[in-house]
Write a structure and sequence with these properties.
This protein is mainly beta. Helix content is 4%, strand content 51%. A hairpin with a 6-residue loop joins strand 10 and strand 11. The protein starts with 15 loop residues before the first strand and ends with a helix.
Length: 144
């Protein structure tokens, strides 16, 4: 005689994800600090779908004369079946198109998590108006 047994199981390994894998800040300006937090429409959220807490650590970046990026919290533990909003702060120090990958390492996860940041950073623009002639941009003069 055959008997059947119904079983339900959950996999007991880390299952942590980010809510986004791309962050586009659009037009930004050198010399300003940008904060992406829970109030920002593109907030960054770590989600732990697993049954165990997960330790994480963001790789913060400081590239002299280019960017400075920090996370809050930069490291910590995310409880099981929960999510955590990550505050991301970044300052740009030069202009141009910008693409940078930011990585979060999670203990016992097969690979790191991360997101690609894209923005167009505008640097300082100076113009002057000599007398009655129309304004002349320094950038225009330098390219002539």
């Amino acid at each position: 005689e055959k008997k059947y047994l119904r079983l339900t199981a959950e996999i007991q390994k880390p299952h942590v994800k980010l809510n986004r894998y791309k962050l586009n800040l659009g037009k930004t300006f050198a010399g300003l600090r940008y904060n992406v937090d829970r109030k920002h429409e593109s907030s960054i959220v770590l989600v732990n779908y697993g049954n165990h807490e997960a330790q994480f650590q963001w790789e913060e970046k400081v590239i002299p004369d280019k960017i400075e990026a920090t996370f809050q919290p930069a490291r910590g533990v995310i409880p099981p079946k929960s999510q955590m909003v990550i505050n991301f702060n970044i300052s740009f120090y030069c202009g141009g198109k910008f693409k940078e990958l930011f990585v979060c390492n999670v203990a016992d996860l097969e690979g790191p998590l991360g997101f690609l940041l894209e923005t167009e950073v505008h640097g300082l623009t100076v113009s002057y108006h000599p007398g009655d002639s129309p304004p002349i941009s320094i950038a225009e003069q330098m390219s002539s």
